[in-house]
Each structure stands twice: as structure tokens, then as C-alpha cells.
Amino acid sequence: VELVESGGGLVQAGDSLTLSCSGSGVMFNQYGVAWFRQAPGKTREFLGTIGPNVRNPFIPNSVNGRMDISRDNSKNTVYLRLNSLNAEDTAVYYCAARWGPVYSGTNYYRREGDYQNWGQGTQVTVSS
């Protein structure tokens, strides 16, 4: 599957933004999709993940409840909703996909290497 992120740009602090991850190819609904971001000078950070046909995503507490992930398989798209943006949210945002579930039975997959297909990223810049 090929992934393309969109929806990034320059926003003001306090704004909300929805990023899209569109998947091409067949059987997108068989892929779990995660969101990551990479801020300047920092390592890539896991933001959350959603299974192939799962309504509820897994989002770790570290993102403080300001983000949500959803998917619309009829549109081959996964969304990342960002709320109450601040300067620390400035980063390149990536979506990534893996075939099958995003939960191993004991843990959610949250490492970069757990996902085989990556988009090119979309820049989000938050101006204060």
C-alpha cells in the first residue's frame, strides 16, 4: 500500500487541525495505520495507531488527550485530529501502515520498525 499524508501547514497556537493519510492499492482495510511525528532535532515519536477494522484507536497518555485517530475505510483514509496546538507540536507528521492488527495480544505496535509502509510526511508549523 502507498500512503500520502495531507492537511499540514502553518497554523496558530490554539488551533485545531486534521491530517489525512490516504492509502492507494487494494485491501487498505486490512492494514493497521499509525501516526508518528518528528520535530527538528528530535527522534520520531509515536502518536497512536488504529487497527484495520477497529473503531477505537490506541493513543498513549503522553500526547495528553489532544489527539484523536479515526479511519474511513470507504475512503481508504485515516485521520489524525490535533487539538489545542502549541509550538511543541511543530513537526513533520507521518502515517505508516502494517498488514493486519496493531495489537500483538500483549502490546500495541508502536515502534517504527513495526510498520512497513510509510508516507512522505506533511509539515505542521505552529506559530505562537
Compact summary:
The chain has no helices and ten strands. The chain is mainly β. The model has no long low-confidence stretch (mean pLDDT 94).
- H/I helix tally: 0
Question: What percent of residues are in strands?
Answer: over 45%
Name the helix and strand elements from N-terminus to C-terminus, one letter apiece. Answer: EEEEEEEEEE
Residue runs with pLDDT of under 50 for 5 or more positions: none
Distance between the termini: 37 Å
State the secondary-structure class: mainly beta
Outline type: globular
Counted beta strands: 10
How large, in whole angstroms, is the Cα Rg? 14 Å
**How can the largest sheet be summarized?**
6 strands, mixed
Summary tags:
mainly beta, 128 residues, 6-stranded mixed sheet, globular, single chain
Structural description of this entry:
This protein has 128 residues and is mainly beta. The protein has no helices and ten strands. The protein has strands at 2-6, 9-12, 17-24, 31-38, 45-50, 67-72, 77-82, 91-99, 117-118, 122-127. The strands form two sheets. Strands 2, 4, 5, 8, 9 and 10 form a six-stranded mixed beta sheet that branches. A four-stranded antiparallel beta sheet has the order 1-3-7-6, with no helix packed on it. Strand 4 (31-38) and strand 5 form a beta hairpin. It is globular and about 40 Å long. The mean pLDDT is 94.
Please describe the topology of this protein.
Elements: E1 2-6, E2 9-12, E3 17-24, E4 31-38, E5 45-50, E6 67-72, E7 77-82, E8 91-99, E9 117-118, E10 122-127
Parallel strand pairs: 2-10
Antiparallel strand pairs: 1-3, 3-7, 4-5, 4-8, 6-7, 8-9, 8-10
